[in-house]
Prior knowledge:
Elements lengths: L11 H8 L4 H14 L9 H14 L41 E2 H18 L7 H18 L5 E6 L2 H5 L14 E5 L5 H17 L5 H20 L4 H4 L1 H4 L10 H15 L2 H14 L14 H13 L8 H13 L9 E2 L5 E2 L6 H21 L3 E3 L2 E3 L1 H16 L23 H4 L16 H4 L30 H4 L3 H17 L4
Antiparallel strand pairs: 1-2, 2-3, 4-5, 6-7
Helix pairs in contact: 1-2, 3-20, 4-5, 4-7, 4-20, 5-7, 7-8, 7-11, 8-11, 11-12, 11-13, 13-14, 13-15, 15-16, 15-20
Amino acid sequence: MAMAMPFAPPSLFFLLLVFLPCNALAYYNSISLLHHHHPHRFAYHNYRDALSKSIVFFEGQRSGKLPSSQRLTWRRDSGLSDGHSLGVDLVGGYYDAGDNVKFGFPMAFTTTMLAWSVMEFGGLMKGELPHAKAAIRWATDYLLKATVHPDTIYVQVGDANADHSCWERPEDMDTPRNVFKIDRSNPGSDIAAETAAALAAASLVFRRSDPAYSRILLKRATRVFQFADKYRGDYSDGLKRFVCPFYCSYSGYQDELLWGAAWLHKATRNPTYLSYIQANGQVLGAAEYDNTFGWDNKHAGARILLSKAFLVQKVQSLHEYKGHADNFICSVVPGAPSSSSQYTPGGLLFKMSDSNMQYVTSTAFLLVTYAKYLTSSGKVVDCGGAAVTPGRLRAIAKKQVDYLLGDNPLRMSYMVGYGPRYPLRIHHRGSSLPSVAQHPAKIQCSAGFQYMNSETPNPNVLVGAVIGGPDQRDNFPDQRSDYQQSEPATYINAPLVGALAYLAHSYGQL
Length: 510
């Protein structure tokens, strides 16, 4: 365990040589030039490298037939008969985290956040934009399959309990690939509306580059949202023993209906969605103290998104969402009168012990995105009479991302493959088991646990994976069995893509 040290080494050159990856001298020279041209914008971190890796990660989570462009080559095809039991093609999509189940709820949210990242910051991504769009399309191709039948969504492939009793590579899995669905008699407004949001947001991403595909996505989004709104209910009511406790809908479905309507309003400009938001916003909205944004609770994201319509597009009827968005922002600003967020001694936003980093990345994304909207409209945030500027929001977001990348008491990057020190024993089957290339013979269900319980580092580096992260005292044991702290997830990375694109551009790295 490296000893914590103050961030004040005697020389910049020394710091770069000690803490940066190989080729430090060339990197130092490029940073020196950058520093010369941007004297007030020196960045210790290589945000462009982190951005690239944050997108590569999604290739490690792919299910289905892998393309020739696959960059994480230790992965192979998997789940090629998914959906076969019900006579539907459900090949493709993403494994949500370190297991081999395809959960539709977090997959749809991941897709929405990747699309929002590209919508806001894709113009800054340069050469990373095609990779980001490929990550979105891998998800939307699957979501189109999952919504092929009207008033039906296939929401999960794989029995989570059976899957979790094995430690297998996805290429070897022989656990049941049961398919679970929602329909009129077993509704799921939460997952349906999130799926509609994902398809609508992605339609905006592909509107110019692939208009035909964009139209398909938007048409499907419209149909899926109608289903979500007409047949109301929580998907985990009917599917409780299959989706809980993994991805229960704890916050209900009202937030997703507002979120889905907001994305369809943005994608279609159809006034019926604005009318829907105006008529239902109070009912679907949450209490003002609701300040968590993630795969389950979309209230804060919906407020920020709808505030853009008021701030930037001047939709006066949505003026109240500026206040709602401000309330969320004020809840996370350290020292603000209404701040209700906890931070670790090292400065990390801390929401909960299980996969806390997802809230760090989603909040950082909302901060830089709202700062963008405020800047374009010449506004600030009012926190109990104190004006909080867009610059302050960006600084808070940057501090969170910097902590994630290594500016923390342990001097550890929580992104696998970034920086000189990062987690080596992440809770991830494919990463922790020998690859098919290294071990062609099948590794059976229970045989894999010898690798799970091993102290040796994972043989396959899941580049770009951001894991659950440290505890509330900045401690991180790097133990594979500790899924709360050591497991990566697609919905941790998705909002980080946008935040990193902003930072890489802001510091002249893109």
